Amino acid sequence: MLDIILDVIIDAGLDTVKLIPFLFVTYLAMEWFEHRTEVKTQSAIMKAGRLGPLLGGVLGVVPQCGFSAAASSLYSGGVITAGTLVAVFLSTSDEMLPILLSEAAPIGNILKILAVKALFGIIAGFILDAIYHGMMKRPLRYKNITSTHTVNDVCEGEHCHCEEGSILKSAIIHTIQIVLFIFLFGVIIGGIVEWIGEETIASFITGVPFVGELIAGLIGLIPNCAASVVITELYLEGVIGAGPMMSGLLVGAGVGILVLCRLNRRHVKQNIGIIGYLYVMGVLFGMLVDVLGF
Known about the structure:
The protein has 16 helices and no strands. It is mainly alpha-helical. Helix 12 (211-220) packs across helix 16 and helix 14 (242-251) runs antiparallel to helix 16 (268-292). It is globular.
């Protein structure tokens, strides 16, 4: 029992350490935007924001869950649109890519999975921006222009008053706070996965058509890198098909969802809407993959 607990703690620690560079660079960039950029530069950023989902879908294929955490931080700070955030969430490969490479999966298949995830992320991102920022007339992004979120909101929400210090100090404070939070949550989630077991999870996924996509999507919502590990390994072992695999990995945004709920907690309805949309689109795209025989 003690060995299992130690393994969970070590795994959570290693997963958390991987995120530190992503988070620190992200917060450093956010603070620079807040303290250094002028209105003209901010206007240019806002105009480019309509193509955000395209950029987010492409960059989201970068392995590890650090990029989804970074995207959540940027969204909470009002730097990117909701569609861009969802595009990153859907396309991010999390731990999938390292596992596929370590298992010597065909490079062609790996590239196909990455391309499909990026494509689905881009499509879903543009649809969400068209609905949320187009039909509903919600602001695109960035304070002093139209956004209701600012980096200072993040600071005030964390009660750290770090906006009063230097850019470097603010970035360090934010990084430490989120890293500690992710580590504690990772220990809890890792313990649950160890307790339930991968075989039990697999038994829930297989069976009735399309039920696998629904359940895999729920597993993917677990805000921890362990979700993508389980889904990918079950796929490689032949326990689940391409449809459930795609649903689980599309929805699986790693700790991105956790960081979103943490930093954007003043806007609970927004968070629920984004997570709900992420799940629905992930499941639908997974079903589409199943029907087309990917």
